[in-house]
Amino acid sequence: MRLYEGITKEFSSDVIQNVISDKIAESFRDYYGHQASPGEVSSWNNSLRFLKDAIEYNSLWDNSLILEYELPYSTRRVDCILFGKGIDRKENVVLIELKQWSEVEDCEIEDNIKTFVGGAKRMEPHPSVQVRGYHFMLKDFMELFEDKTDLYSCAYCHNYSKIKNTVLLSEKYQRLLKEFPLFTKEDFESFGTYLKDKLSNGAGFEIFNRFINSPIKPSKKLLEHTKHMIEGQSAFSLIDEQITANNTILDRAKKAHKLKNKSVIIVRGGPGTGKSVIALNILAELASKKIPVFHATGSAAFTTTLRKIVGVKAASLFKYFNSFSTATENQIDVLICDEAHRIRKTSNSRYTPAKNRSNVPQIDELIKVAKVSIFFIDDLQVVRPDEMGSTNLIIETAKKFGAELFDFELKTQFRCSGSDGYLNWINNTLQIRDTPNIILTKNEKMEFKIFNSSEELYAAIKHKNIEKPNSARMVAGFCWPWSDAKTDGSLVEDVVIGNFKMTWEGKSDATNLAPGVVKANVWAYDSRGVTQCGSIYTIQGFEFDYVGVIVGKDLIYDPINKRYLGVKTGSADSAAKKGTTDKEFTQLVKNTYRVLLTRGMKGCYVYFIDKETEKLFRSAIEI
């Protein structure tokens, strides 16, 4: 997606005639279905005049450009991309990040700075660090750059004076600046020289055409790269707020043994915003430096799968939230708590020996055990009443321990084909949170399709799995019992809808399963899992290219009162039903379907048992 494109001469004319921001805003409205914010429109008006001046002054008239280009598999947009041939006649693409910053402060966190943005002073990545993320993300996914076309990337801070402030150009950034230069308000001439060297021989339209028609490589799935990450190989390019959070975590982790007080770092984000990518990236880097670090979750399926992927040698790095109940204070330097919304009231379970049972809150145990604790969390993914994890709980407990607190929010969407609009639409349609995305527009990159029967849905998922092995899964609301295996080790077909019958996964503690039956704790990883239906407890934390969702009889839409009703009699999830009010149960079920409907990277296929719910979803889709 690109909000503006054209030749540089037309762009210059649009800026001079003061219509550039109107054109971009119109494209924004047509694509996203709502208005751009006043702040964004203001930034277009301000920054694009400086870009126009540079193009005009250096006579770059035979070039093409794109403004507000959406990166592959992401919602993040690059400010400007210019196309042309350089002095040496080589084909070049130049990526430019435009910054209105004027006042910048140094920051003790490596590669982060502080500046006034979004109405407050905030920690941000250094502009060249931000540009580096965009640069490698484009190179990762666009086949164009495997051939004869070169990519160059820079930042233009047109309001920032290097005479008054040298923070962005300090010695510690010199190596970075050589590869990803930063130009200030005094660097108009050198910025122009940089552009002329790479673009002055024009022919931009031809390169622009090859860029927009360049094949996009397949998106990366976390599980496919986990082993490489743990072995120290770079797999994912971090961008924007991911970089800020990642830098802070690494800085505090490396200084853990020197810190006087504990550090607690919260990283909030919805499905697909890269929480687990950062978590595993941090784990790999710290483990390679021999810093005592562990990764913990509350999910047996997620932890078991990660252990299986990384192998015996690294498996000990992966723990459960209840693994630290008897640990001493500050026993480890760094604890990474992934899926922190699954933190429970205490670490007691049916397997906990009486002597080890305790009333100490699990969150206290997790913060107590480490000098630096990091919590990756989505407050809207709580799906059981005994899951207590929340941002507020972590903040209050951190204060109790006198810990230094950092709080970050990830907003850029990488799953669901990089569609913020899709996730917002799901939140809105499930009445979880009001968003501007009332209608799923035809411009959304995420494929959403409603099927008339569960048989048709399953056939489509099996077909996707044939096209690309292990790329699709069937899941359903927990609306049918989960039976033990039969005496011969085969599974009971518990999921029954008319003539359609399917089994759940095999129970993880089963000992007599027949060949070919996949246990729940590795269902997401084993390619045979497509033959069995998954539930919220086996898919949470995972992602697939396509997911098929059966929305069951535990959630129905009341068209008269225009609200959802959670139906306990339609649920087989005793954990969710026990001790909850009707309102609480309804919220848990809505959260469950929010998770299920956002596991797909490319598409989500759905069958609704309740036809009023289906009507509501159909009415919210643009025809």
Shape verdict: globular
Unreliable runs, pLDDT <50, ≥5 residues?
none
Summing up helix and strand content along with how strands pair, one would put the structural category as: alpha/beta
Terminal residue distance: 20 Å
How many domains, as an integer?
A: 3
Strand order of the largest sheet: 1-2-3-4-8-9
Oligomer: single chain
- Strand percentage lies at 15-25%
Number of helices: 20
What is Rg?
Answer: 26 Å
Indicate the percent of residues in helices.
25-40%
Major pleated sheet:
6 strands, mixed
For the residues shown, what is the average pLDDT? 91
How many β-strands, per DSSP? 23
Descriptive overview:
- The protein has 623 residues and is of the alpha/beta class.
- It has three domains: 211 residues, no CATH class; 189 residues, P-loop containing nucleotide triphosphate hydrolases (Rossmann fold, 3-Layer(aba) Sandwich), CATH 3.40.50.300; 193 residues, no CATH class.
- It is built from 20 helices and 23 strands.
- The strands form six sheets. The protein has a six-stranded mixed β-sheet, with helices on both faces. A six-stranded parallel β-sheet has the order 12-11-13-14-10-15, with helices on both faces.
- Strand 3 and strand 4 form a beta hairpin.
- The longest helix has 20 residues.
- The two termini are 20 Å apart.
